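> agent: user asked for a holo structure of the chain below bound to S-adenosylmethionine. Plan: (1) validate sequence alphabet, (2) canonicalize SMILES, (3) run complex prediction with ligand conditioning, (4) return tokens. Step 1... ok. Step 2... ok. Step 3 dispatched.
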Amino acid sequence: MALPEAFTAPFDYFREALSFLEKYAWIYQNANTCFLKAGTLEQMPQTFRNYFMQIDNNELNTFPLIHQSFNALTIPDLLEFREKVARLTPLHACREVEVEGEMNSSLTRARKLKSKKQHEIIKLTRKINENLNKEGIAAERYILVDFGAGLGYLGEMLYELNHNYRILGLETNSYRIRKATQRFEETKKISESRSSIIYIQHYITEESSAFIENAIMENFKYNYATAEKLKASTRLAIIGLHACADLTITSMKLFFKMPQVDHLIIMPCCYHKLEMCNTTFKFRNFPLSEAFKDALHNAQSHTVDNNYVRYLNRPFLRLACQQTSKRWSKCSSEYHRLHGIEMFLRALAEAIIDESETIHKFKSRKPLDLSLLKDFKEFRQLYELREKATNVTLRWRVEHEKRYKAFLRKYENCDGSKLAEGLICLQTTMQKMCENLVLYDRLYYMQELGQNLQMRIQVHYEKLLDEELSPRCHVLIAKKLQ
Ligand SMILES: C[S@@+](CC[C@H](N)C(=O)[O-])C[C@H]1O[C@@H](n2cnc3c(N)ncnc32)[C@H](O)[C@@H]1O
């Protein structure tokens, strides 16, 4: 979300991060269900394996807290790994955010919102309101275009806070639009609000500016085409809560494209769903900044295309939006023990089946002890075998049992479930570093674009939410300067 403290030039940061990812790509480059099939444990250095075989629960929980001192760790390879991650992760990414009590609002009272959603809406509503009213210039009206409005909670809460807001909620999902409109009309007492919040079904693209202008004109009777840019008494901002995948980037591009938009306040999520080209394996919107692209071209050992496949891939983006270290740091030893066993067995099942087969876990059957599972009959109680094409149940066969036993023999001198949990611990340690690369690249892209277009802007991220409650917790705040 920012340039880490150890760097002064974005290019140097990107270059060092890329060389780190190249070295440690084995930690994330395969889906966790496939880590045995892909031989990930064979790539784990022996020093790492030994460490995770004997680690106690306190150490396991503390290892990913990279900006906290960790005197228990003395093994050079692991110290180097942890220190490098810390160097590549800004301090601000690890700061604590206060969880507030319920805001006294009819919205949170009436909807019985879950604590996660309540926390998100309250915090973002306040942040938007604070930013839009910072300069003390009271806009006669402020039109807020909510990108990916979902069920419309954010817009409603904003209107409740400030009746000068007009909200245009754009959402591609027709069910959500229907629900948002219906619920809003049923519950609103203030008749004025009927014409103040409008939801429209629309799939937002980089070409959506004309659609947005027309929708504003039709619904709020305001013609932006004739308004004097940024000076109009009716102003315009793009907002969004968890605008997933490419939608946040679309909002950044429209912020530059639409002269009337003076603020962009948006929280991103679902990086792993970014659009990717199936032949080049490059993402349409990652990396975005020239500095990152230059660093990628400079990565020496392989061609740029190879780098996308090897370490700047979908598993990397999935790691960037995995659970964060805060929740991990509170897990009990029993949780880690069971989680490790589940993960090892799931990967084992994946490793012994044919390409045409798939497995399905029987609900409610929990593996409690790995030693019991030496018997293939016990393992069969946990997973059902199915044909991938038809989903028809199949019988486990002798070949499966042979492969199963071969895998268990391979790991008989170590506890595969502890190594599985060790692998997740390493991923959790890297998660914030990966997320920072994705998010800082976007921020720097906006700064580059602002310079190229000779447009003065201010842009930064703030950690807004409690990461344990809501792991995608950073808000991008951009504004055009007069
Ligand atoms: C993670 S949900 C968040 C919903 C809502 N903002 C909230 O926080 O409750 C993301 C929403 O964005 C919508 N969406 C994604 N891409 C979109 C696009 N290009 N145009 C319009 N809506 C989009 C999805 O349908 C989904 O409802």
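> agent: step 4 complete. Summary for user: The chain has a mean pLDDT of 90. Residues 1-140+233-481 form one domain.
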